[in-house]
Amino acid sequence: MCQSIALSQIPSLDQESAYYQRLFPNASQAGKDRAVQLMFLRLGSMQQLLGRIRETGRKPQVCLYALTARNCSPTRSLREARAFAEREGLFVRPGQSFTDLVDLALSDQRPGWATVRQQVEKGYVNGVVALTPSVIAPDINAYERELSWFDTHGGFVGLVHAEVTEPPPQAVQGATT
Fold first, then answer.
1. Rounded to two decimals, what is the model's pTM?
2. Of all residues in the chain, what percent carry a pLDDT higher than 70?
3. Which of 30, 49, 132, 147 gives a 20 to 30 Å CA spacing to 164?
4. How far apart are CA 151 and CA 173, in angstroms?
5. Higher confidence at residue 109 or residue 49?
6. Are 131 and 77 in contact (CB under 8 A)?
7. Domains (ranges, CATH) in the chain?
8. pLDDT tens, 67-83?
């Protein structure tokens, strides 16, 4: 089971897809799974943007985002997001950690998320790092809209734990028979 995917472990979308197909040759649905597709799109977009930024000699700048329950601090979530950013060579700007209550399901109801988007839109940061897709949006349709927004505005989403942490059940069965 893969907990996260480091950028350095994904040489290209084509190679990763071929690798997945070799691991699970009988998993015809695996390549069509939306979560897998979104993961590859997110990673490809992130790699391209980071490459362009680093070519200029700059260090990509990000903010951190986490959800929290009432009266709880998201210290651990933000610490994991910061560690991921540092491993990937991303600079976390001081004071650029934003949170919202987990009760606020829709992205447009989250003031912290609105601030993250403003930071990207104004060019203060290049992207955001969060723990999982569910922190970004409550369902896959909303998550896809958020990824599209970031792509349109020249930003990226980095995730500590990737969209897909294990292959679909039919892929595992096909690989073992």
1. 0.73
2. 71
3. 49
4. 35
5. 49
6. yes
7. 7-176 (3.40.50.1390)
8. 998 878 888 999 999 99
Comparing CA positions, the residue from 137, 73, 130, 150 lying closest to residue 110 is 137
Burial class of residue 149 (count of CB atoms within 10 Å of its CB; 0-12, 13-18, 19+)? middle
Hey, is 18 helix, strand or coil? Answer: helix
Residue 139: predicted pLDDT: 86
Report the C-alpha gap between 5 and 11 in whole angstroms: 11
Distance between CA atoms of residues 133 and 141, nearest Å: 11
The residues, any chain, with a CB within 8 Å of residue 16's CB and separated by 6 or more, are 10, 40, 43
- Yes or no: say if 170 and 29 are a contact pair by the CB < 8 Å rule: yes
What's the N-to-C CA distance of the chain in angstroms?
19
CB 164 within 8 A of CB 132: no
From the number of C-beta atoms within 10 Å of its C-beta (0-12, 13-18, 19+), residue 68 rates as middle
Contact between residue 61 and residue 91 where contact means Cβ atoms under 8 Å apart = yes
